[in-house]
Amino acid sequence: RRGRGGRRGRRGRGGRGGKGRTPASATRRSRRRSSQGFGLKEEEGLKARTTQSKSPTQSKSPTLTPGALIAAAAAARGVDENRDEGVPSFVCNALDFVLVLGGDGTVLWTCHIFGGQGMPPLVAFHLGSLGFLTPFPPSRIEHVIGHVVQGGFPIMLRHRLFCTIERNPKNCDGTLESMKDHTINHAACTKSWVVLNEVVVDRGISPFLTNLECYSDGEFVTQVQGDGLIIATPTGSTAYSLAAGGCMVHPQVPSILFTPICPHSLSFRPLIFPDHVQLRVVVPPGSRAQMYASFDGKDRQQLFPGDAVVMRMSISPVPMVCGGAGASGDWFRGVREGLHWNLRRQQA
Fold first, then answer.
1. What share of the chain is helix, strand, coil (3-state, %, to 5)?
2. CA 63 – CA 60 distance, rounded (Å)
3. What's the N-to-C CA distance of the chain in angstroms?
4. Are 176 and 167 in contact (CB under 8 A)?
5. I want to staple 335 with a disulfide (CB 3.0 to 4.6 A). Which of 42, 88, 190, 341 is the partner?
6. What element of type H or E holds 279?
7. 174 and 300 part of one domain
8. How far is residue 279's CA from residue 255's CA, in Å, rounded to a whole number?
9. Which domain holds residue 142?
10. Residue 229 sits in the same domain as residue 193
């Protein structure tokens, strides 16, 4: 058995028909030529081939998340990957459109990571539960993407709010310790957010009513006593604001919604402001309740007496690709099918 194996091994080395094993020197020369053909050094070419040839049991490849891809692109350009802006501007400027697969929360998260900069059009496919902001079914993904690539698709511009928390200088970094010690961190006073749905100022777990002073372009509007206040966009009019008793507003109507949450008054009705005003919600110095502000349901911030939340319309709306029925058709379909608006049995 060993003899036959040896003879078979010698025939394998010598080869049939006079073909022998490639010498090591020839292998190195071919590797050098292949790596030079791709503009790589020999060590880099060998390293790349070694990485590709590893089996899953030998090593696990890194997960390619959107954050990892953005961080890699930012590092290649020398941009700090620990910044707070989300998607870098050079990545945003290089995009023709953004494909969104998910529900309404995925659309909000996509707008959140782009921040306040101008965004490319969003093409959203409905993979969630409600799908109010995702007009396309996943079964038509090839047709829709092909149509978008060819051009000539309708766009709906959804307005956003630009929001800033102005801290009282006595508690500028937003902590209770700084309020007691009167230390100031001016860098924390400049943080801002851009929201697609709404800004919510509420009392959290405090048992006391809110006592918020509201101003429009510096003019006093009213004092909110209740559970809180919602400042919403027309897109957000069908979200939390609707649940709190606010009216539905078409997303192409330029406006800012002012909706109280459980006001302690029978006559406090929601308002609609024009889009050019700047709203300011102030926590008065004598407020007993602990106040909180959240932005599209994220980044919940505690507010202390003397702090203010300032909101105005953002200069960068979100362009969203519409279906064949256009902007109004998509919105009314969502209102009827998603919210079951005016659903009743037809009278005979």
1. 35, 25, 45
2. 9
3. 95
4. no
5. 341
6. strand 279-282
7. yes
8. 12
9. 84-158
10. yes
Asked if residue 116 lies in contact with residue 314, where contact means CB atoms within 8 angstroms, the answer is yes
- Encode burial over 298-333: b for 16+ CB neighbours within 10 A, e otherwise: eeebebbbbbbbbbbbbebbbbbbbbeeebeebbee
pTM of the predicted model, to two decimals?
0.72
**What is the model's pLDDT at position 183?**
46
Residue 104 catalytic?
yes
Q: What is the pLDDT at residue 326?
A: 80
Whole-angstrom distance, CA of residue 289 vs CA of residue 292: 10
The torsion angle over the Cα atoms of residues 164, 165, 169 and 173, rounded to 10 degrees, is: -110
Q: What angle do CA 182, 183, 189 make, to 5 degrees?
A: 110
Provide the token pair at 168.
């009282």
- Is residue 168 domain-shared with residue 302, that is, in the same domain? yes
How far apart CA 325 and CA 36 sit, in angstroms, is 54
- pLDDT of 313 reads 96
Whole-angstrom distance, CA of residue 149 vs CA of residue 259: 40
Q: How many domains does the chain have?
A: 2
CA distances from 330 to 127, 133, 323 (A): 16, 9, 7
Which residues, given as ranges, of the chain have pLDDT below 70?
1-85, 171-190
The structure tokens listed for 78 are 């020398």
> So what's the pLDDT on residue 239?
94
